[in-house]
Amino acid sequence: RARRPQLESGAPLHPRSSWLRLEERTHIDLSGADLGRLVMPKAAMQHLSTYYPDEMDAVTAKLEGDEHGGDAGAGKVHEGLVWTLVDGQSGQNKNDWRKRRLIMKGSLLHVQLDKKRGGALKQICDLRSTVECRTTILGRFQHCLAVTYNYEEGAEATITFATESKQPMLDWLETMSEFSLYIARERAAYTRQT
Q1: What sign does the dihedral 93-96-97-98 (CA atoms) show?
Q2: CB 174, CB 78: distance < 8 Å
Q3: Where are the beta strands (DSSP E) in 2-154?
Q4: Using CA atoms, how far apart are residues 117 and 43, in angstroms rounded to an integer?
């Protein structure tokens, strides 16, 4: 059986990182933003848990649950009214936003298509597929979150939503952070800056 390629630090590379040339593997900072895509998840978790213990507790607990047959759609439900950015819009104008009910069931993020409670849901993404997360200010909204995720091999999309005050955004970040290293890091940064 062939040995899996490793970084110089000994962390095993993720199979989708096979494109890395050997000389590039020695220059990867394990705590860098590409960590989740380049190394095996357990190695990444061990490294991040050492350097970011508070932020990683919830993520570690969730991943341990997944290894024992955890279902992405199972678990607690979090929901609330948010402003979602219309695809392709800048967010600077009022018409760029739609008020929608965002619903998170386990690690699955949904948006309610009509304004009536109990209406049809559209699944947006599984937060475990997040590849980037950032808080920002867009137009009249001071509390915006952009989550970029993989939805099929090699394809990415972004959902951007805003809350009208700080506390609902903190609640969303807290709830979502247990499913993604990227969101957990952004939550820590957002908490420090606000």
Answers
A1: positive
A2: no
A3: 77-85, 97-105, 108-112, 121-126, 130-138, 141-152
A4: 42
